[in-house]
Design brief:
heterotrimer; A mainly alpha (224); B mainly alpha (42); C mainly alpha (228); B: 42 residues; mainly alpha; C: 228 residues
């Protein structure tokens, strides 16, 4: 099978299974909703203040929700010994990784699309800067979290306390991406500064770590 | 000035804690070696 | 190394004592900050030592991935552990210095301290991974994590650098040029810490060698009992 065919097949399977069960998306939605509502009680900010803090709040909520999705990334494969099969077969492992990463990217993006209107309403958000920039920020930022998250989820498979290992590994490595995400979003919302540098940083982060993941995925897959 | 002493004391407490951890590890390994030796000769 | 150990231990003790004396008494008092500035003589050399140890870890990790040599793996583990110890010293002494000088415990824009914090977090997660791993090839996975950490550090540095240009804040660190006598004390303490690091690393390395031998022997013993 060609690389593209493997990616398409795996991705389609995962999306279909998720559509039927809606496990991940429900958990993620519930969690994000909780964060939005609770913080809106805690702060009750004016429109001015909310523009300053919303960037951080939104991405913290999405990050924790993404962890929910990431934790179950490989669960199905583990149960059905798919990873063992991959280790034995001559098929390249990278298409599997990419399919999983794309799947997670889609799940988290769907969550973001669903949650954004709620954030706008609850925090009375109206971006003062160029609002269109939020799209590349979201795309690059989500990929940054998801690509490393999928990789570390695979590493966490062979550890005790799997659910703790993933965030523990992911958070320090994701700090530049999180800084970029939060500051870029705040820059666009407040309109006080340009988000350009942060977008460039996110792009650099994505390139560096996507390459690193693709180069090293086979190594960690075989190491288990 | 208490800040100055706090910093120096903290430094040595951190190093000391690690060395204490190593000492405990060492005694555990010694115990395991003893029990292995007994297992072989027993 | 076995015979050199006592000599190194004595040299280290001497250097540390001398360095401590120079730092607290011998060095001239700084004009603006006063005596609190003397924390600098422990804070900075600890940072340099920690960074060197993490660099060794990176080199050992890459070597391990290429050669799969057990010694490289043990060196990686040892340098990570001792590096975290020195890094903890940096992160603890930094705020203790910052508080009396700037009135705040932490400045998010302080590029050096924040980068050090991220390095510390990365290596804590590295050590936890090594402890919690159930894989037979922990060394490989740990080496990969070390590489990811190394890739991350320049990105962290740049992101905080830019953050600081947008949100200027006090920098905890040396302010301006250094009196040559201060350099002198700084270097003495650095050499002392390097010797201490070498001493502790060597000890930890021997412990690890022994631990792995014991583990192997225990495994062989239980195999032997099963086959009886």
């Amino acid at each position: 099978m060609t690389v593209l065919a493997i990616i398409r097949a795996t991705l389609a399977k995962d999306l279909r299974l998720e559509w039927r069960s809606k496990d991940a998306i429900n958990a993620m939605l519930f969690f994000s909703l909780l964060v939005v509502v609770i913080f809106s009680f805690a702060f009750d900010p004016t429109a001015e203040e909310s523009r300053r803090i919303a960037g951080g709040l939104i991405w913290v909520a999405f990050l924790f929700a993404a962890i929910v999705a990431l934790n179950q990334t490989w669960a199905r494969e583990l149960r059905n010994h798919v990873l063992d099969a991959y280790r034995v077969s001559p098929a390249p492992a990278n298409p599997l990784f990419l399919a999983k990463a794309f799947g997670n990217f889609i799940f988290v993006s769907v969550l973001e699309a669903l949650m954004m209107p709620l954030f706008v309403i609850f925090y009375k958000l109206r971006p003062l800067g160029p609002a269109w920039e939020l799209l590349p920020i979201a795309i690059l930022g989500t990929w940054a979290l998801v690509v490393n998250g999928t990789f570390f989820a695979a590493i966490s498979l062979r550890t005790r306390s799997r659910e703790i290992m993933l965030p523990l590994l992911l958070f320090p490595i994701s700090i530049p991406a999180l800084l970029g995400l939060v500051n870029a979003t705040t820059a666009v919302l407040t309109g006080e500064e340009s988000a350009r540098f942060w977008i460039a940083l996110l792009l650099a982060y994505d390139v560096v770590f996507t390459v690193a993941c693709l180069l090293l995925f086979e190594t960690i897959l075989e190491a288990e | 000035m208490s800040y100055l002493y706090a910093a120096y004391i903290a430094t040595w407490m951190i190093h000391g804690t690690y060395l204490a951890i190593l000492a405990r590890k060492y005694s555990r390994i010694r115990r395991e070696m003893e029990s292995l030796k007994k297992g072989v000769s027993g | 190394m076995k015979r050199g150990f006592p000599i190194l231990a004595i040299v280290t003790a001497l250097l540390l004592s001398f360095g401590l004396y120079e730092a607290l008494i011998g060095a001239p008092t700084e004009r603006t900050m006063g005596d609190v500035q003397r924390i600098f003589y422990y804070h900075v050399p600890s940072a340099w030592t920690a960074f060197l140890l993490f660099l060794i870890n990176f080199a050992a990790s890459v070597t391990y991935l290429i050669r799969r040599n057990a010694k490289a793996d043990m060196l990686a583990l040892v340098s990570a552990e001792v590096g975290v110890v020195f890094c903890t010293v940096v992160i603890v002494t930094g705020p203790i210095w910052a508080r009396p000088v700037w009135g705040i415990w932490w400045a998010p824009g302080d590029i050096r301290l924040t980068t050090t914090l991220v390095l510390w977090l990365i290596y804590i997660s590295y050590l936890v991974l090594r402890r919690f791993s159930t894989s037979g090839q922990t060394a490989v996975i740990a080496a990969v994590v070390a590489i990811f950490g190394a890739l991350d550090v320049p990105l962290v540095y740049f992101s905080i650098w830019f953050f600081r240009t947008q949100h200027p804040s006090p920098v905890i660190g040396d302010g301006g040029s250094l009196d040559p006598r201060m350099w002198h004390v700084l270097l003495i303490n650095w050499v002392a810490f390097l010797c201490l690091a070498w001493l502790v690393c060597w000890t930890r390395y021997q412990l690890e060698v022994a631990a792995r031998q014991v583990e192997e022997a225990q495994a062989l013993q239980s195999l032997h009992e099963v086959s009886r």
